[in-house]
Write a structure and sequence with these properties.
Length: 312
């Protein structure tokens, strides 16, 4: 297989060799780690009874927020103009797939909605201003418009709705999420329609989940925060049918043997758990245990995953 290596601004083709640049720190991976850390700390602020641990969580989350979103020397720019750019492209510019890179920012939105009252309010306001700048860029830039008008604009709408929920409240996010979801449903009324494009790819299982995940998130935003049980029965039925459909998707040519059934079904089980919570059903296995075995989870059945499973 040919791979390209970018060295000193030039593209050099090397057959059968891994790009050494892949070992360098990546902004997308750093943003994912940051977002997960902030979300975990927010859960600690909200639920840990120990006042010392709670205070340490507050101090840590405030430091991370300042470094990544406020301090001029280290902060991330809200306008991700070069995200997903192609090496060697002239002029250098990003494309509509920037939503893939920034999707984990919704965890920051969720975290501050959860525990923002415990954080210094001037800092929360600065984060809101940063998020608002990104919303404006997403809604007005050519890059943002391409993402909005893409064949599958799900992640674009999810990110925008979560951002609006954080900075403007439920009304704004519900309006956007509801209209976006119904527009999607009108074009994709059956599970076969939802995943038709995904099944064309060699990594079809990955593509199906990458379509289903934002669809579930978008549905959750059609109702006020923490009121998912009040969601439309039609939406719940639609999502349940989609989850059942992806269970039948076979491995794509490049997914075997790495994408085994255990790992794939573990991710499907996570989505099923969410839907069960929305309809008020908490099924236990034969041994009376709510928790799954965790077999197949990425990085194992860690303490964080156990905690998150319990919150669903």
């Amino acid at each position: 297989m040919d791979v390209f290596v970018v060295l000193t601004g030039m593209i050099e083709w090397r057959d059968g060799q891994r790009n050494p640049e892949n070992a360098r720190p990546r902004g997308q991976a750093q943003l994912e780690t940051l977002s997960k850390t902030i979300h975990t700390l927010a859960l600690g602020i909200r639920h840990i009874p120990d006042p010392d641990l709670k205070q340490k969580s507050i101090e840590r989350i405030e430091k991370l927020l300042r470094v990544f979103f406020v301090d001029i020397d280290t902060r991330m720019e809200p306008q991700v103009r070069f995200s997903q750019c192609h090496p060697g492209q002239e002029p250098m510019k990003g494309n509509e797939c920037f939503v893939i890179a920034i999707r984990y920012l919704i965890l920051v939105d969720q975290a501050l909605l959860l525990s923002g009252s415990s954080i210094k309010q001037d800092l929360v306001q600065q984060i809101k201003e940063w998020i608002n700048d990104q919303v404006v860029w997403m809604e007005e830039s050519d890059q943002g418009m391409k993402a909005k008008n893409a064949e599958k604009p799900l992640w674009y709408n999810v990110i925008l709705a979560y951002h609006r929920q954080f900075i403007q409240g439920d009304t704004s996010s519900i309006t956007l999420a509801t209209s976006s979801f119904h527009e999607w449903f009108a074009k994709h009324p059956r599970p076969q329609d939802v995943f038709a494009e995904s099944l064309k790819h060699d990594n079809r299982r990955h593509r199906c989940l990458f379509t289903l995940e934002p669809l579930v998130l978008l549905a959750s935003l059609t109702v006020p925060l923490h009121h998912e049980q009040g969601m439309s029965d039609d939406i719940k039925t639609y999502l349940r049918e989609c989850v059942e459909y992806v269970k039948s998707v076979e491995q794509g040519p490049i997914e075997s043997p790495l994408e085994d059934d255990i790992r794939y079904m573990a991710r499907v089980a996570w989505l099923e758990r969410i839907l069960d919570g929305w309809i008020g059903r908490d099924e236990k296995d034969g041994g009376g245990q709510v928790e799954p075995s965790g077999e197949g989870w990425e990085d194992g059945w860690s303490e964080r995953m156990r905690i998150m499973w319990g919150f669903l």
